[in-house]
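Here comes just one.
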Amino acid sequence: MHIAWIVARRLLMFVAVVWVASTLNFFVPRLAPGNPIENKMLAQVEYGGSSMDVQALVKSYNAKFGLDKSLLVQYVTYMRDILHFDLGYSITDYPTRVTTIILHALPWTIGLLVTTTLLAFLLGTILGALSVWRGAPRLFAGCVPLLMLLSAVPFYLFGLILIYIFATVLQWLPLGGGMGIRSDPTLSVSFALEVLRHSILPAASILLASVGIWTLSMRGMMVTVQGEDYMTYAEALGLTARRRFLHYGLRNAILPQITLLALSLGHVLSGSILVELVFGYPGVGQQLFRAVQNQDYFVIYGIVLVLICALAIAMLLVDLVNPLLDPRIRHSGRAA
């Protein structure tokens, strides 16, 4: 009963978080001045030199997208559509559905950022733990100043440096994009290698900037853990250094890292927007930036909603998994 109550409470919190965040997601983009449909129509008139009746078209499209109704009616419609998993149509790319845009961009962002996030987590956690572990080679401690420097440099700056060195000067790798302009996406080894080649520079920029952050975080936790009584007791028992490091030090210090990892994976769907823009990478971050530029409400709603759900699911999993990893959390919950 106790576990069922905890799960039910977490699920209610999940629903509340999604509802509040979705409500903010609806109203915040509306704060920007101007009408996106009118702006698009005027841009088409200026570009094509047409003499169409812009106001009549704007009125027609406002009715099509429901923008002629009151804000309250639009909000109710928006929440109803979410419950039916209907994200509507893109204003900028009409009649393309928002779901289609997101599904085309998701594999690029997930493939790039999940891989780099997990690699940065593993490398940073191991380096951070070994950098302060007594008996570890001094090489690991010597890496800390360099990693601190790397953690202070933003993703996009690494991206510009890597583009200049490897794409412009050495010309070993492409400047950007997810694949070649003339490439036809197919399930083949050659296409997979081409995608991998285009992802090396953006992945490297994210990895270089992220490893230092994970290392510093783990380093601080490992310093704290080494001063605990159970570490002294394990050493007094004569346990090997390897066992003390893996089963007592790393196991306890890594718990906060796992929480941060879950939240970082929840952020993956938003993409590293600036990195995707620098490299022209066709991910979710670039689609979100383009939607904000064009005031494409429905694409913004769709992408941010997916991000909200990803973060809420990550938080829910953390709440449910942490008691399994750390018995102290279970006992404190029962005591409360």
